[in-house]
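Q: Hi! First time asking for a complex rather than a single chain. Here are the components, and I think there are two in total. Is that enough to go on?
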Amino acid sequence: QLQLQESGPGLVKPSETLSLTCTVSGGSISSSSYYWGWIRQPPGKGLEWIGSIYYSGSTYYNPSLKSRVTISVDTSKNQFSLKLSSVTAADTAVYYCARHERKRGDYGLGYWGQGTLVTVSS
Amino acid sequence: DIQMTQSPSSLSASVGDRVTITCQASQDISNYLNWYQQKPGKAPKLLIYDASNLETGVPSRFSGSGSGTDFTFTISSLQPEDIATYYCQQYDNLPPLLTFGGGTKVEIK
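A: Yes, that's all I need. Here is the structure of the assembled complex.
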């Protein structure tokens, strides 16, 4: 059974860089059938796609966040990571990692991590 | 950028009722639309992909339809365990870019 687990600091200071890692177990991140993505949800609000990566390293970002986001992959560790720079209180959210379809063509996010709350505060 | 307008933002219905949620795209997105269910404190769950295809293991009381700019998500007979917030999600093909609707909170009357 595929599992995804987010890890990283739960508190980040304003203007600093938020860093999270997603560890994938029960399946290979190097599969050609999937992309791996990050989605966030501010408390009490809706979902926002941050960006996704293919195991080869190709990345796709939300245009509204592109200037601050870097997503990378480490196939040897079966992990992918998110860095969001120059954070503000508006970046406080639950951050989810997820797997989404590529080969099927619908980009559906079929497997999700449990999510991790990141608070931006001094 | 494509905008997704979901309505209503919330609804209250009785067990056994038919529930309908709509999602409108700001431009033609063909059938590039997925639907998710999110229960409180949990990650979202994919229910419908490509507008009308039921994800494996999802009960048949859930369905989706539409193409172009107008889409509908239906629960044919609302069950207590269906209490959740539902989101539509559009995707651009090549490169993959995803946009979520604002969500619809479904409650039991």
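A: The mean pLDDT of chain B is 96. Let me know if you'd like any chain examined more closely.
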